[in-house]
Amino acid sequence: MNCWHCERPAHGACIFCGRAVCREHVQEMPHIVALYRDAKGNQKAVVTARAVFCGVCEPREDPVEMPELK
Ligand SMILES: [Zn+2]
Ligand SMILES: [Zn+2]
Questions:
Q1: Does residue 52 belong to any structural domain of this protein?
Q2: Domain residues for 49?
Q3: Full pLDDT tens readout for the chain, 70 residues
Q4: In this structure, is residue 16 part of a structural domain?
Q5: Ligand with smallest separation from the Cα of 15
Q6: Which ligand minimizes its atom distance to the CA of 25?
Q7: How far is ligand 2, taken at its centre, from the CA of residue 39, in Å?
Q8: Which of 4, 5, 12, 38 has the fewest CB atoms found within 10 Å of its own CB?
């Protein structure tokens, strides 16, 4: 697969949307791997600090409501 931006061979794929990106165009963004509640009922998140991000797909910090799926 080639880079979404420059069409040279890609080194990775965006964790959010799957677009391929080369080393030159890759960006990094924290990514929440999992959400859970601890024994006290506090919401916790497992986060990778430097996930591969394509720079295009604009992942939102908060889940987006999708009323059209109802
Ligand atoms: Zn590129
Ligand atoms: Zn992406």
A1: yes
A2: 1-56
A3: 999 999 999 999 999 999 999 999 999 999 988 999 999 999 999 999 999 999 999 877 677 777 887 6
A4: yes
A5: 2
A6: 1
A7: 34
A8: 38
Classify residue 9: in a domain, yes or no: yes
Classify residue 69: in a domain, yes or no.
no
Distances (CA, A) of 6 to 2, 23, 53, 65, 68: 8, 11, 15, 33, 35
- Which ligand lies nearest the alpha carbon of 6? 1
Determine the distance separating the centroid of ligand 2 and the alpha carbon of 19, expressed in angstroms: 6
DSSP 38-69: -TT--EEEEEEEEEEE-SSS---SSPPP-GGG
